[in-house]
Amino acid sequence: MNYRHSSSSYRLRSTNHIEVPLLAQWLLLFFVLGLLGLFFVYLKNQQHALGEQMRLVEQKAADLQAHHDALLAKVTLLTSRGSLQRKLDEKYLDLLPIAETSIARATPTRELGEAKNMKTASLH
C-alpha cells in the first residue's frame, strides 16, 4: 500500500511545548513549600527539646527545694531548745554568763509629752 500524502491531507502534528517559565514558577513554589515544611519540623523538634530541658530543670529545682526544706528542718531540730538542753547536759556546749558591762539597757530619758516625741535610748 502506497500512501500518498497530499499537501491538503498532510497536517503537522502539534507538539506539546513545555512552558519553562510556568514550570519554573511551580518548581520554585514547591521548593519554598518544602523548605517551609522542613523549617516547621525543625522548630517543632527544637520546641520538644527545650521542653524536655525545662522539665529536667524544673525537676532539679524541685529536688533542690526538697533538699533545702530537709536541711532547714534538720537545722531547726538541731537548734531546738530540747536539743540545745541535751547538748548542754552532755557538756557538749558551755554557757557563759553575760558580763554586766556587756549588757545594754534602753531607758527613756523623758516621758512622752503633748508633742508625742519618740523615746530615745541611752547606754549606761
List its traits.
0% strand; 2 helices; 124 residues; mainly alpha; single chain; rod-shaped
Question: Can you summarize this structure?
Answer:
This protein is an all-alpha fold.
Molecular structure report:
This protein is an all-alpha fold and 124 residues long. The protein has a domain at 21-97. 55% of the residues lie in helices and 0% in strands. The chain is built from two helices and no strands. It has helices at residues 20-78, 81-89. The longest helix has 59 residues, at 20-78. The radius of gyration is 47 Å and the shape is rod-shaped. The mean pLDDT is 83.
Reconstruct the topology from this structure.
Layout: H1 20-78, H2 81-89
Q: Whole-Å distance between the termini?
A: 143 Å
- Proportion of helical residues: 40-55%
Number of strands: 0
Judged by helices, strands and strand pairing, the structural class is mainly alpha
